[in-house]
Design brief:
The chain is α/β, with parallel strands linked by helices. The protein folds into 3 domains: 172 residues, Rossmann fold (3-Layer(aba) Sandwich), CATH 3.40.50.970; 163 residues, Rossmann fold; 196 residues, Thiamin diphosphate (ThDP)-binding fold, Pyr/PP domains (Rossmann fold). The protein has 21 helices and 20 strands. The strands form 4 sheets. Strands 3-2-4-5-7-6 form a 6-stranded parallel sheet, sandwiched between helices. A 6-stranded parallel sheet has the order 11-10-9-12-13-14, sandwiched between helices. Strand 19, helix 20 and strand 20 form a beta-alpha-beta unit. The longest helix is centred in the N-terminal third of the chain and has 16 residues.
Length: 550
């Protein structure tokens, strides 16, 4: 297609051509030409948010669910800096995302004009690519390249600044066809060394999830692991990498993992790492598995060649799409009988992930998770930000098919509610739950207004212990009983939810949770349960008194 159009119209047309069907934004005068073009574009659902941090998180979560870039638009200066948290999370989480920023006019640049920022310089260190479009005729080229960069290799965010006057230029432009995601296969002959390592290993274990992981990869890898009897652990916050009811699922790594899984990792002679970066959280600060892993063989498969041998020395590195690698594994001739290790590891995880009643707790979150597992379907999507509150679900929830866990590996607070809005819009037929601590919720709780405005169905649990719990835990460990800056005075979250137009209740006792959950699940729209907990019980396995004593 080539005809004279405004830059805003060209941009929207080329986003449609690449497959964009939803845009998250906070409006700004710097991209009015884009908003005008969207007025006549029914193919794109425009989601109007309340703060750019919510915009960034929604786009990041949407990219995580679809495998194609989540698309966000914000205005210059404050809008862009607010949205930067979503870019950082998309980068660390390896999720495809496009952030478009309305910028100052080209003739105003370098005068420190109103809200002016050098966006390529600002975003360069935290994005795969950060650029600016100067010529409206080149918009198709930039959009196609951005789409390809965001989805190829290790997926990640691309940031594009859009000068306001450029978007109003009327020019001829040749639209680009849809970019198909690049995939790289494997030569079976090149794969033979990996097969030989697997055959010779006496105690192998797999760590999976991350860049490019999808349902097809999950199915192929599960088939391989079952036929060989290899335990499969999920990298940090990649707990939906394979179905948790699979007999090879061994649990998750990260903060507070099962000690028996940790022992299995340390005892393994072969580490089969597929898709994961082996980041700081997954490896407990690079100590569970050290970068040189003496006494262990590391096979590392990742879609980005620059990730292999970047931190961890790989005995055998494979740069390829994770599905190609998993599919090749699934085609290996399996032994007559699978090893018993996988079944043993799964039994250990089942015991670890079954909550036992806790003495002295008025509202026992472990029993709340158990009640949710009884009442909610296996494909429920659990969305959470950062905080100790999430550790109960990380330990006790059994995750279903991809995508069923949306949680930032970057450890960003405020992610849960925006991610749940994106999930409820993307999968209206599925149950969606936003988990948020009290501090976590207050960072993006305003997006309840977005949820209500756009008519989504979702359940919000606000876990309120009157503290920044994770920091309080660290504070008690380093400076026992010397509280400073971690106590919170909170609103009535149920009343706040009702003010936004949500159905809401407060729960203060374990016995009241299941009935309140039942009532919530009978309602439609946005439902909020305010769970008032005791900060003394700071995590599933620790108390403040115990930390002080230690």
């Amino acid at each position: 297609m080539s005809m004279k159009r405004t830059g805003g119209r060209i941009l929207v047309d080329n986003l449609v051509a690449q497959g964009c069907d939803r845009i998250f934004h906070v409006p700004g005068e710097s991209f009015l030409a884009v908003l005008d073009a969207l007025h006549d574009t029914p193919a794109i659902d425009l989601v109007t948010c309340r703060q750019e941090g919510g915009v960034g998180f929604m786009a990041c979560a949407d990219g995580a669910m679809t495998g194609r870039p989540g698309v966000a638009f914000v205005t210059r200066g404050p809008g862009a800096t607010n949205a930067s948290i979503g870019v950082h999370v998309a980068m660390q989480d390896s999720q495809p995302m496009l952030l478009f920023i309305g910028d100052v006019d080209r003739g105003m640049r370098d005068r420190e004009g109103f809200q002016e920022v050098d966006f390529p310089a600002f975003f360069g260190p935290i994005a795969k690519w950060a650029t600016r479009i100067e010529d409206a005729a080149r918009i198709p080229e930039y959009v196609a390249r951005a789409w390809n960069v965001a989805t190829s290799g290790r997926p990640g965010p691309v940031v594009i600044a859009l000068p306001e006057d450029m978007l109003c230029d009327v020019v001829e432009a040749v639209d680009r066809p849809k970019i198909e995601r690049q995939t790289f296969g494997l030569d079976p002959n090149d794969f033979e060394p990996v097969a030989e390592l697997i055959r010779k290993a006496s105690n192998p274990i797999a760590i999976v999830g991350g860049a490019g992981w999808d349902r097809s990869t999950s199915g192929a890898f599960t088939a391989f692991a079952r036929s060989w009897g290899i335990p499969v652990a999920g990298a940090f916050r990649r707990q939906d990498a394979i179905l948790n009811d699979s007999p090879v699922w061994a649990g998750n790594l990260g903060y507070g993992p099962n000690p028996k899984l940790v022992a299995r990792i340390k005892a393994a002679d072969l580490l089969l790492v597929v898709g994961a970066r082996l980041g700081e959280a997954t490896t407990d600060g690079y100590t569970l598995i050290t970068p040189d892993h003496p006494g262990q063989i590391l096979v590392h498969a990742h879609p980005d060649s620059s990730e292999i041998d970047r931190v961890y020395r790989a005995d055998f590195g494979v740069a390829c799409g994770v599905f190609a690698f998993a599919d090749m594994l699934a085609r290996l001739p399996a032994p007559a009988e699978p090893r018993p290790a996988a079944a043993d590891a799964h039994a250990e995880w089942l015991d670890w992930s079954t909550p036992k009643p806790r003495e002295g707790v008025t509202l026992d979150l472990g029993q709340c998770v158990a009640a949710m597992r009884e009442a909610m379907p296996a494909d429920t999507i659990i969305c959470n930000g950062a905080g100790n509150f999430s550790s109960w679900w990380h330990r006790y929830w059994h995750y279903g098919p991809l995508p069923s866990q949306l949680a930032p590996t970057a450890g960003a607070m405020g992610y849960g509610v925006p991610a749940a809005v994106a999930a409820a819009l993307r999968f209206p037929e599925r149950q969606v739950v936003a988990l948020a601590g009290d501090g976590d919720f207050m960072m993006n709780g305003q997006e309840l207004a977005t949820a209500v405005q756009h008519g989504v169905d979702m359940l919000v649990l606000v876990i309120d212990n009157g503290a920044y719990g994770t920091i309080r835990m660290h504070q008690e460990r380093e400076y026992p009983a010397r509280l400073s800056g971690t106590t919170l005075h909170n609103p009535d979250f149920a009343a706040l939810g009702r003010a936004y137009g949500c159905w809401a209740e407060t729960v203060e006792r374990t016995s009241d949770f299941a009935p309140a959950l039942s009532r919530a699940l009978e309602e439609r729209g946005v439902r909020l349960l305010h769970l008032k907990t005791d900060v003394e019980f700071i995590s599933p396995g620790a108390t403040i008194a115990g930390i002080r004593a230690a």
